Amino acid sequence: MLRLIPAFIISIFLSLNFGVLIYVNSTFLGGFFPQNIVSIIFLLASAINILLFLFAPKLFNKFGKERLMFLYLFATTLGALGLASAGSGLSAAIAFIIYESFIFMIYYSLDIFVEEESPDKHTGEIRGIYYTLINGGIAGGPLLLALISANDNLKPAYLLAAALLVVPIILSLMIFFRRSAPIVRREHSGLSWRIWWKKRNIRAVSLAKLALETFYGVMVIYAPLYLHGELGFEWSELGIIFAIMLLPFVILEWPAGELADRFWGEKEMMSVGFFLMGVMLLVMPFLSKAFFTWMIILLVSRVGAALVEITTESYFFKKIDASDTGILAIFRILRPAGIMFGAAIGVLSINFFSIEKIFFVLALIVFFGMREALYLRDTL
CB–CB of 57/189 below 8 Å? Predict the structure, then answer.
């Protein structure tokens, strides 16, 4: 467990960075572009991210995870600084695409570190700790945003986000120099969609994960546009709402991981999580601007999402080992794929319906994820 500490520290600071920016990027880009163009920019960033994942196993074999993690951190920092200094739509779009393309590659690098040091019998527990730290950082980000936000001036948020990556960059350099002589590289498998498709349980949990990531994609892009742009919530209010909304990820994932290892297995908790998410989404289009009502509805939806997140992660990692980076890359492609699906859903919905109808469409996708969860063969 001690060997995981550097990865855990990096994950905390990286997640604070991500949490500060996750719900402001669409609004920031919306200051330069209409909503449909914002969706297209998210699509482009996700497409580049998917390309990086497709080549990830080869890159890791050639350069090593230590060197690549440093490069990904450096590129992400440049993206955040570019957003802070953006004076035109073009510069803002380019900086955002750089930031969004590389930040998930850092999490992928951390995944490999953690998997290499995680025995199968403690996978749920270690993943629970890991995701508690990640989600604690993400939950803390909106609180920092609420403290530094001044109306619609988001430059301080991007500068803070860049500063938060200094510690991860230093730690990644320490890891690289500590392990560079000699580095014993594990040979990483390439992507194999055929193997992924044949493994029924891995396929089902991946589709459940895709439904979850599509939920995240829609909520990250369109919930701020709706709550801030349509209903009129201030960022000081939204920072508090989002921070409280994210608490289930901090509180539930560690004990849920333990329960998945020892008592219930993943299938039941995953199904309950999807049910909670779907019901809350069906309620959202009917809500007016009411601070506490939105806080409670979003909180319950994230109770469901937290259960789905840790159970999909725990189930998946019980089915692979550290050499299966090709299968892992496919699993991690689901994050940008979910953002792409979310952005596409938004483009189509905005063209045909009012923006709040997106929540109805998303509920259908969430219930599809629930169906896939019910197909799983439980681990207990």
Answer: yes
Nearest-angstrom CA–CA distance, 273 and 373: 10
Residues 225, 130: Cα–Cα separation, whole Å: 30
DSSP of 189-224? P---HHHHHH-HHHHHHHHHHHHHHHHHHHHHHHHH
> What are the distances in angstroms from CA 6 to CA 65, 96, 140, 169, 226?
14, 27, 20, 11, 38
Contacts of 296 (CB under 8 A, 6+ apart): none
Read off the pLDDT of residues 102-139 as tens digits, 9 standing for 90 and up.
998 998 888 887 777 665 556 666 777 887 888 889 88
**Phi, psi angles (nearest 5°) of residue 112:** -70, -40
Give the separation between CA 333 and CA 336, rounded to whole angstroms: 6
pLDDT tens track for 61-112: 788 777 888 999 999 999 999 999 998 999 999 999 999 999 989 988 888 8
Of 17, 281, 309, which is closest to residue 160 (Cα–Cα)? 17
Question: Within 10 A of 220 (CB to CB), how many other CB atoms are there?
Answer: 18
Residue 153, beta-bridge partner list: 150
Structure tokens at 3: 């060997």
Radius of gyration (C-alpha) of the chain in whole angstroms: 19
Global pTM reads 0.79
| 44: Cβ contacts below 8 Å, ≥ 6 apart | 97
Q: How far apart are CA 155 and CA 138, in angstroms?
A: 19
Q: What is the distance between the alpha carbons of residues 179 and 190, in angstroms, rounded to a whole number?
A: 24
Q: Which residues pair with 150 in a beta bridge?
A: 153
Residues in Cβ contact with 54 at an 8 Å cutoff, skipping those fewer than 6 apart: 191, 329, 333
Beta carbons within 10 angstroms of residue 197's beta carbon: 12
Q: Which residues contact 87 (CB under 8 A, 6 or more apart)?
A: none
| Cβ burial, residue 59 (10 Å; 0-12/13-18/19+) | middle
Q: Are the CB atoms for 255 and 129 separated by under 8 Å?
A: no
Q: In angstroms, rounded to a whole number, what is the distance separating the alpha carbons of residues 221 and 344?
A: 11
**Chain-centre distance for alpha carbon 231:** 25
Catalogue all structural domains in the chain, each as residue range(s) with its CATH number. 7-374 (1.20.1250.20)
Report how far residue 66's alpha carbon sits from residue 246's, in angstroms, rounded to the nearest whole number.
Answer: 30
